[in-house]
Design a protein that fits this description.
oxidoreductase activity, acting on the CH-CH group of donors, NAD or NADP as acceptor; lipid biosynthesis; globular; six-stranded mixed beta sheet; FAD/NAD(P)-binding domain; 20 strands; binds flavin-adenine dinucleotide; 404 residues; alpha/beta
Length: 404
């Protein structure tokens, strides 16, 4: 028999955005269902898991969920730079542990988690607004009725597509990664590798997790390049180029693959009874294509706003608007600025990358972190663009400010 459920809020997708939305909404006292298609939360890992310790602390993620990083190394075909910090500011997450912790927070706050529920359609009312979802559950067809739905399904954006509000992302990053055991690992040092050999439109990386485990990956921008990241990764690992050689013998543990939107903040994210959050909303920093901290932060905002709207009995687009206003105010201008730097980076030749690293060398660790995080505070940028002792750095920050 078909299974049927009634909730105040249904959240589709048990990634960082969905679990965080379910947590905030349940904590605010409404009845929440979190639906995940896989057998367990984070069964498949689709991310490298780099984020920032400041954000980790803000979210309350426990210390045993990440490996701290304090040295940031870059290499291009003929150049190399390492920016070192006295304290670690970046981190590589144990993705499964962290995502399961986020889902556990939702559960402890009262959300019901349904696993093995693959949502494939929406239920609409007479006005054409969403009032629930249907899918295939462990026992066949399953239906969830709700006042508000949050689409946290990630790149596929299942619900907003089913509503006809959006089509497939046109510009995106495709990434392939091996988690491997390596012989020689500096556990507090990451590597970003740029230039045609590594990725014709993107970069390759080595992110350490501790215990001699590293994630080695390649990201390729689409449609800019038709290179297959999995193939390129295998070639790089076989030929052991650049810093991969220093790792010594590599024993693969697990393969990861994923897609991340890179279309800027092009989508509306609130509709009557519907919110988009995380990758389904395109909330990613385009400089290095990182979205986990935004997924958690704005997932919580989405859950809070949705639950307030439900309590007030008004869940149309206007009632959900504070969510969109909140995230746009926080990141829109930063992401637009970062997009300009990304446009510059995506077109660089090997020789130009060698020179770009000379510019990056001039940044101190704080400037570097702000830059790579796209934390472009305007006064900071104006200061750096006007007063940085190096002309090339002034030009880079002028670009961020919007000048040519
Ligand atoms: C190769 C790669 C490397 C990356 N590296 C980093 C990094 O180092 N740092 C960083 O911050 N970001 C990184 N990102 C981006 C980051 O992974 C995303 O921004 C983040 O995962 C977005 O979270 P989310 O919850 O929106 O989506 P997701 O993490 O994709 O979660 C979506 C969830 O929804 C579930 N789901 C999907 N469809 C359905 C359905 N129909 N029914 C039920 N459940 C469904 C999925 O199984 C999944 O659990 C990377 C991305 C890629 C592709």
């Amino acid at each position: 028999m078909d299974e049927e459920h009634h909730y105040d809020l249904v959240v589709v997708g048990g990634g960082p955005a969905g679990s965080s939305a379910a947590f905030a909404a349940a904590k605010n006292g409404i009845k929440v269902a979190l639906l995940e298609k896989e057998n367990s939360i984070a069964e498949t890992v689709r991310t490298s898991g780099v984020t920032w310790i400041k954000n980790i602390k803000e979210f309350g993620i426990p210390d045993d969920c990440f490996n701290p990083i304090k040295n940031f190394s870059f290499c291009s075909p003929n150049n190399e730079v390492m920016i070192s910090d006295s304290v670690p500011r970046a981190a590589v997450l144990d993705v499964r542990k962290s995502y399961r912790w986020l889902a556990q927070q939702a559960k402890e706050s009262g959300a019901d988690i349904f696993l093995k529920v693959n949502v494939n359609n929406v239920i609409k009312n007479e006005e054409g607004d969403i009032v629930g979802v249907t899918g295939i559950g462990p026992n066949g067809k399953i239906t969830f009725h709700s006042k508000v739905v949050i689409d946290a399904s990630g790149f596929p954006s299942t619900l907003c597509k089913a509503m006809g509000f959006v089509s497939q992302w046109k510009r995106f990053g495709a990434g392939a990664e091996y988690e491997v055991k390596a012989e020689n690992v500096e556990s507090d040092t990451w590597w970003l590798m740029v230039g045609q050999q590594y990725s014709p439109a993107g970069y390759a990386w080595i992110f350490p997790l501790g215990n001699n485990i590293v994630r080695i990956g390649v990201g390729v921008g689409k449609p800019e390049s038709d290179v297959d990241p999995t193939q390129r990764l295998k070639e790089l690992m076989d030929s052991k180029v650049g810093p991969i050689k220093k790792l010594g013998k590599l024993t693969p543990i697990e393969f990861h693959y994923g897609l991340i939107p890179n279309d800027g903040l092009s989508r509306d994210t609130v509709f009557n009874n519907l919110i988009l959050v995380g990758d389904s909303a395109g909330q990613a920093n385009p400089l290095v294509l990182e979205g986990i901290r935004y997924a958690i932060k704005f997932g919580r905002v989405a859950g809070k706003v949705a639950s307030e709207a439900i309590k007030s009995g008004k869940t149309d687009k206007d009632a959900l608007k504070p969510y969109e206003e909140n995230w746009r105010k926080a990141i829109e201008s930063k992401i637009n600025s970062a997009g300009k730097v990304q446009d510059r980076w995506i077109g660089l030749s090997d020789e130009e990358w060698d020179k770009e690293l000379d510019i990056i060398k001039e940044l101190n660790s704080e400037e570097f972190i702000d830059f790579i995080k796209a934390e472009f505070g305007l006064s900071n940028m104006v200061k750096l663009a006007t007063h940085h002792p190096k002309l090339a750095v002034r030009q880079l920050f002028n670009l961020v400010k919007g000048k040519k």
